[in-house]
Each structure stands twice: as C-alpha cells, then as structure tokens.
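Weekly modeling sync, notes
Attendees: AB, CL, MP (scribe)

Item 1: holo prediction request
CL wants a bound-state model with adenosine monophosphate before deciding which constructs to order. AB pointed out that an apo prediction alone won't tell us much about the pocket. Agreed to run with the ligand included and paste results into these notes for async review.

Input as submitted:
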Amino acid sequence: MKIAVCISHVPDTATKINIAKDEKTIDPNGVTYIINPYDEFAVEEALKMKEKFGGDSEVIAISVGGDNNKETIRKALAMGVDRGILLKDENFRDSFGIAKALSDEIKIQGCTLVFFGKQSVDYDNAITGQLTASMLGYSCIAVVVNLKIDGDKIIAEREIEGGKEVVEAKLPAVITAQKGLNEPRYASLKGIMAAKKKIIEEKQAASFESLTEVIRLKKPAPKKPGRILGTDSSVVPELVKLLHEEAKVI
Amino acid sequence: MAKTILAVLEQRENKLKKSAYEVVTTAVSLSKQLNLNAKAVVIGNDIGNLDEIVKYGMGDITHFKNGDLANYSSTAYTDIVTGFVKEIEAEYILFSDTAFGKDLAPRVAAKLNAGCLIDCVHLEVSDGNLVATRPVYAGKALMELKPKSEIKVITIRPNVFKAHSSENNVITNIVTKEVTSPDLSTRVIEFKKSEGKLDVAEADIIVSGGRGLKDPENFKLIEDLAEALGAAVGASRAVVDAGWRSHREQVGQTGKTVSPSLYIACGISGAIQHLAGMSSSKYIVAINKDKDAPIFSIADYGIAGDVFEILPKLTEEIKKIKT
Ligand SMILES: Cc1cc2nc3c(=O)[nH]c(=O)nc-3n(C[C@H](O)[C@H](O)[C@H](O)COP(=O)(O)OP(=O)(O)OC[C@H]3O[C@@H](n4cnc5c(N)ncnc54)[C@H](O)[C@@H]3O)c2cc1C
Ligand SMILES: Nc1ncnc2c1ncn2[C@@H]1O[C@H](COP(=O)(O)O)[C@@H](O)[C@H]1O
C-alpha cells in the first residue's frame, strides 16, 4: 500500500513572533523551525501502517512550501519515511491552495491512505486534511486518537467535546492525527544517516489563486496587567467579591 | 434579490447545542449588515429543543430528517449541506468552530470552491465587505483576512460570539424535509461520553491545575473547587505528560483552546504554550506561590501564595455565596 504523510514546517512553539515590515507575514529572523508537532504523530502512524501492511508498502512525505521545508522532510525521512516530495511554492497559499497541491500529488502517487496532523501550529486552521480528502473524494476522519484498519474497513476514535466518537469508514481515506494516537519514535543515528541518502523530489506546485486574502497580521492588544491581591488566603473573600460583583462571572 | 447567509446548526443526542444559538445570532446580525436573507439548517432525527430557536430572531429553518442521521455522518451531512447551499444559492455559510463545525465546514468548502475563514473571533463589515479576524501562531498574532471566492465558509470560535435572544419577535418557519437513502459510508457508530464530566472546550468556567499541585491526589482540591463553581477541570501539559490527568483536560497549544468567562490557573507557571490555549478567556485568576510567574502577566486577579492554603478557603467562600 502507498501511504502519504503531509507535513508542515512551522515555527517552534516557544518562538516569539514578530510581524514583518509587510505586516502580512512574520519576521523569520531568529525563528527556529520544526516539523509541526502533530505531524510527528502522523508520521509515526504512517510508519506503523507500513509495518502492518508489509509487502511493497511505502511511505511518502509531502510538503508544500519553500526550500526550507526540506529540513522538515529530512526529519520525517530520519524517522523512517521512504522518500519525500517538496511541492515548491515560495509564496503564501491558504489552506485551500495547499490542499489543492497535495490532492493533485496524492492522485499522481496513487496513495490510498493519507495522514495529516490535526492542526498546524502556524495558521492553526485544522482543515487541510478535510479539504484534501474532500477534493480527492476520500473518506476522512479527523482528530483521531485510535485507529484500526482491517481490509478496507476503518474504525477510528476521534476526540470531540465531551467524549469520543467512534467512526466507521472505508479506504481510501485521510486521517488527521491527534496527540494520544501513538508515541512518535525518535530518529536514531542510523536513521539520520540513512535519511541523507533518501530522495527528496522537488516539483513546482501548480500555481493557485488563494480564495482568501490576508489584509494584515497584527499583535493582539496587550492585556492590562492585573492585580495581585495578596499572598495568602486572607484575600480570598476579596477575590470572591471581585469575581461576583466586578467581573460578574460567578 | 438578496443573497443568503446560511447558519449550520449542531445537534448532539437530539438536542441543539449552545453553539447553535451563537451561530444563529451571528448569522442574523451579519444578514442585517450585509443585506442578506438569513436561513438556518439542521440535520438529525427528532430534535427536542428545536423550538427554542425562535427566541434568537431566525425566521427560516430547514430540518433535514432521517432516523440514521441522529449521529454525525461526514458523507451524508456534506451532501445535504452542499445540496441545500446550491438550492437556496447561499453566499455565506456559517458554522461554529466545534469538532463538528471543523469537520463539516472544510468538506463543504472543498465541494463549493469556497474560501475558508476559520476560527474567527471577530467579524466586521467594512464598505460592504466582510473582514474576519482570527488568532494565528497560537494567539501570538491576529490575522485579518477577507474572502475572495463567491461562496464563503466561516467558522466562529465558540463562546466568543454571544447568543442574544431577539427583542422583536420574528415568526419562525420550520420546514422538515425527509432525507431518503443518505450516503452513510463515513458515519459515527457510537459516542463514548467521558464519565459525565464537563469538557473544558464547552465550559463557562474552568479550574486548571499544574505541577504546583505536587501530586495527582491533590487534584481533589481542584475538583472540589470546580464542583462548587459548576466548572470543568483543566490541566497543564506537565501534569498530563506525568500521567496525573487525561489529555482531554489539557489546555494549551497542543491541548485545547478555550475561551471561558472565567479561568482559574492553580500552580501553573504560564508557559507560552499554556497561555496560547487560554489567553482569550474573559477573566483569568492565577494562584501561584512565585509572584514572578508569567501567568500573572495575563491574570486579572492573582494571589501570590500557596495553593494548598488558598484552594480550600476559596472553595468554602464560593460555597457560601452559592447558597
Ligand atoms: C511543543 C510543545 C507544546 C506544548 N504544549 C503545551 C500545552 O498545550 N499546554 C501546556 O500547558 N503546556 C504545553 N507545553 C509545555 C509548557 O512549555 C510547560 O512545560 C508546561 O505548561 C508547564 O506546566 P506547569 O505550569 O504545570 O508546570 P511548571 O512550569 O513546573 O510550573 C509549576 C508552577 O507551580 C508553582 N507552584 C509550585 N508549588 C506551588 C504551591 N504550593 N502553590 C502555588 N504554586 C506553586 C510554581 O511556582 C510554578 O510556577 C508545550 C511544550 C512544547 C515544547
Ligand atoms: N504546507 C503544507 N504542506 C504539507 N502539509 C501541510 C501543509 N500545511 C498543512 N499541512 C498538513 O495539514 C495539517 C493541518 O494543517 P492546518 O489545516 O493548516 O492546521 C498539518 O498538520 C499538516 O499535516
């Protein structure tokens, strides 16, 4: 079985975000980029499925973006992914544009099982997997914490408010991975060495006009500093009074 | 003829969810600003509280009904919403950014070539055009964007757009349409409710605990306060990773993003990834013995003291005003 895993290249979650001069993008100076944390769960699950299906199964990592995304593809290769594809586009695309590029490539590669992260921690849309699945006409189960595939039948649990939904679907399918699905493996030294020899194919992503336009990026208004009421429980009645009478939240 | 804004309402276990009223209120308000007709659609079986919707000023509701549609089916729901949008020529489609909305909205968008404005916290009409604001980089920045496609799909963050009941009584027309042979190839076969506990993503008040609680047993203090307040229990990643609490309680960048009216952080330092998930709460209270902990920088009220001394007293005081 051919399995794809779609990965994005994002600022480290601890990074301070500064807005660039164009007021539409972030200033990349001093920003460390990493593989999107949720995509590590996606890579792990893809590798597990390859082991499960065996035979001539292979896992292909695909990323849409600039040359720097190769670092992230390399990370996936070091974890054990067989080969990578970079769909090059140095310009901003919205999720729709990314999903378009990914779905075209997944069709060419003939992948019947596709993994995404639940959400990428840059634009926080959490929709690219669902868009791609819809474009491909594949089943889609998002925010998955438990996955069983038997023949072409899928039973997955996905996290929703107040519990878990057990979803039934059929292959071909897109799964978006939530924390809890698995424990991502670390890249071994051997894996890192092997990754250097693996192929990352570069292709120009077909041009696409995004369906949304960024007007500007701004910093949220700083919250006015609050009050420290005291250092022990003697101020508790005052706190309760403030919450009740000033904030009116209790 | 004016175009239409369609509110897609969520029901679970045959009841409209609170977020459905937020979507209705927002759709009605946008319809006035953009000069649109407002309509709503809900899919399910019998929906117990459907009549409640009349209070929110929505005049036109279509209920697609089928015994097999009580539970969510992404295939069937996508077909129904997409078909309905085409039939009524809707231009804007509004969802709540819940697990349901987030699943369905992009699937519908892909079918209709619609641009997606996701997880919006502010919607404004300027010169007759919609401008959406949404948090990006886990709330470290805000993005303003506008749609360029003919059909637009929008999801709004729960708890941010409040539901208002309408003063002028609109006469609500509810049309029920039976659905025949829906495509159930992807469908929910079971809902495993987490043991009767309130979910952080839906709670109006959250009491969260971190490593400052020292031991999983001590979360009893958090649970007691939460119970007194009718609140949900939240947790930092440190205590989830330590196995003290379940991941579904984790608040933050790799947990849940929440915007309750009140968030009480106890023994939580306020790491940037934690703040990312809760900084849009309306009121924040921090209890931490380190007066320089970063959590105080975003707290409205703080007590720089010991959780073990403060929490029992706080629970006691809350119980007093509740009786
Ligand atoms: C990729 C990535 C994603 C992450 N995602 C998340 C996320 O989603 N959510 C999240 O929460 N974190 C997340 N983190 C982790 C985050 O960086 C912090 O490590 C974590 O939030 C710390 O949890 P804490 O505040 O409970 O613990 P600590 O930072 O150890 O803080 C404990 C606090 O308790 C106080 N304290 C101790 N004893 C007492 C007492 N008796 N009374 C009162 N106060 C006391 C201390 O002063 C201290 O401030 C993420 C990290 C990474 C790298
Ligand atoms: N540029 C990209 N290239 C490849 N995959 C991506 C890209 N952006 C997002 N994804 C995938 O889509 C998921 C959800 O992203 P998003 O919808 O942006 O939150 C991510 O976890 C990735 O799996």
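Recorded for review: The longest helix of chain B spans residues 18-33.
Action items: CL to compare against the apo run; MP to circulate these notes.
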